[in-house]
Structures are given as C-alpha cells and as structure tokens.
Amino acid sequence: METIETQASFPLVAPSLKEAIARLIVGQQDMVELMLAGLLADGHILLEGVPGVAKTLAAKVLARLLDLPFSRIQFTPDLMPGDVIGTNIFHPKTGDFQFRPGPIFSQIVLIDEINRAPAKTQAALFEVMEERQITVDGISYPMQLPFMVIATQNPIEHEGTYRLPEAQLDRFMMKLSVGYPSLNEEVEILTRQNGSTLTEQLKNLRPIITAESLDAAREQVRQTQVSPEILHFIARIVYETRNDAALYIGASPRASLAMMHVAKAIALLRGRSFVIPEDVLEALFPVLRHRISLSPEREMEGATPDTILKELAGRLEVPR
User: What pLDDT, on a 0 to 100 scale, did the predictor assign at position 2?
Assistant: First the structure.
C-alpha cells in the first residue's frame, strides 16, 4: 500500500484509510470515522463495549496506517503511576537520577480496561491528557504530537473496577459505544479470517498517510469555517443540558469546545471546509453522553444518556 505524501491530501485519502481499517474491522465504520475525527481534532477517545468487539484492534490498526508510534498499557489494580508515566532511576556510578520514560511516551496510546486501575493511577493521566506533558520531580517532559489516548472499558463487568471520576471522563473528547456485529457481519469476519490469521493481516498493513500530511490535516481542521449560527446552535445544545429536568449534571463549556472541534473534523472528512448542522448532530452523542448525569427518577425509569440526548435534540430548532 503506497504512502501518500501530499500534505493537503487527507480529505482525499480518508476514504482509503477508512476502507483499509474496514478490511480488518467489520461493521464498525461509524466508530472508525469518529476515531479519525478525534485524532484530527486533537482529542482522546473512550471506547466502551464488551470484550471481543475489536476495540483494541481498532487502535492498533489506526496507529499502523498512520505510521505513528504505538504503545499499549494494561491497567490493573496494582498498577502504580510510575508504571505509566515513568520514574527517576538512581545511578550509583554517577550519583545522579535519570528519568526513564514510561509507556505513556508514545503518540497513540491504548489503555486497556482503564477502569481497573485505582484513583492514584487514574490521576497520573490528568496532566498528560490535558497538557500533553508529564511532570516528575518538578521537571516537565513534553509529549510528541500528535498525542492521542484511546482507552477501553467493559460496561457490564464491575468486580475489581473503579468508576472513572467526572474529571477523568471530561478529558475524553468522545465516548464511543461499540456494539455486537450483525449476523452477516459476523459471517464476514469468519470468512476473512478463514485461512489467514489476524496477526498476519496486521503485519501486512502499510502506512497510508505520513505524519507530515496528518499535521497538515489537523491544521485544516483548525481553519475549517464555523458560522455564527452554528456556534449558537452548539452553545444552545450544551446550555439545554444544564436546564433539563431529566439531568442531574449538565455539560460544561469544555463540551461545547469539543463539539465544535469534532464537527469541524467531521466536515473535513466529508470533504468540506465549513461545518453544517448535520456535523454538529453527528458529534452530539459521542461528545455529550459521558458528560451528563441523569436524575434519579429517570435512571429508575431505565433511561440512558442517549435517550435524554435524543429527546433534547428533538426539541431544538436546527439552523438552515
């Protein structure tokens, strides 16, 4: 697979990128596109789904196709902050301490089962996810950009897990729910891997876009135009979450910014230099579903964040 060198080519190469990912990940095209949007918008992604639905695979494939350094961290209850960010090591011969970077020092970092680590380890991610740097003993170590954390968690298994605090959830630009494949999609998965292992298929992947082209695409996202009407529409959506009787906690201004950036990235992926209302509506659920808390009454009724957001979106007047 030939690497694309043209810096302004990302909107053209994006379909090829999605197609290459879809060869290994069947039936998750929406997830793939939103992961690309998150990368272009300089955000982090939380993937929620039962084991075996290609959450980890999606992160690996994305890193290989984009030719970016990749690392994987398995979170466990005994994991310490130093195991993630690194630590200073004493050298007896020189009498000095030398910083040894942890696995977080990569560009696409997969954190498997993020909710299995205790609060102390969770807190080690706050600075690096927000400021793209690590501070150890008063010295800051910047991350190489682009830097993206893709974390996974199982929504049904709670034994030995720690609920992510709101401050941690808010640092994820989007939360994507990964479901089961359909019957036909599962047949296709079996067909593709009948005679060829997944490991072999991963080894055959080649980068489709260079780091330079990716940087240019991220700059294009920043330059994507958003009209005052669209900005007001985004602000109105987030504002309504704070005044909805079905919600105990609404979204913060960080959610407004995230929705704007994701909508701009979606517009670029669709080949446009401007945002339309449909881009905002597509960003609404993944950006807001982990930033709101339902009232006890609605929770007892069996409502979900997506249920409330769908009701909210139905009440809003879409600008035209």
Answer: 38
Return the pLDDT at 282: 93
8 Å CB contact between 43 and 172: yes
Which of 18, 16, 60 lies closest to 36, judged by CA? 18
Mean pLDDT by 10 residues, the chain (320 residues): 43 65 69 87 90 80 82 89 86 80 91 86 86 87 90 76 80 89 84 75 75 84 93 93 87 93 92 91 93 86 87 85
Distance CA 17, CA 60 (A): 14
For residue 188, the number of C-alpha atoms closer than 13 Å in the C-beta half-sphere is 12
Which domains, from first to last, does the chain contain?
10-188 (3.40.50.300), 224-312 (1.10.8.80)
Please answer whether residues 233 and 319 qualify as being in contact, where contact means their C-beta atoms are separated by less than 8 angstroms: yes
Residue 248 has phi, psi (to 5 degrees) of: -85, -40
DSSP collapsed to 3 states, the chain: CCCECCCCCHHHHHHHHHHHHHHHCCCCHHHHHHHHHHHHCCCCEEEECCCCCCHHHHHHHHHHHCCCCEEEEECCCCCCHHHHHEEEEEECCCCEEEEEECCCCCCEEEEECHHHCCHHHHHHHHHHHHHCEEEECCEEEECCCCCEEEEEECCCCCCCCCCCCHHHHCCCCEEEECCCCCHHHHHHHHHHCCCCCHHHHHHCCCCCECHHHHHHHHHHHHHCECCHHHHHHHHHHHHHHCCCCCEEECCCHHHHHHHHHHHHHHHHHCCCCECCHHHHHHHHHHHHCCCCEECHHHHHCCCCHHHHHHHHHHHCCCCC
The separation between CA 55 and the C-alpha centre of its own chain, rounded to angstroms, equals: 11
> Kind of pairing, strands 148-153 and 108-112?
parallel
Residue 2, φ and ψ in degrees, nearest 5 = -80, 135
> Is this structure's pTM higher than 0.85?
yes
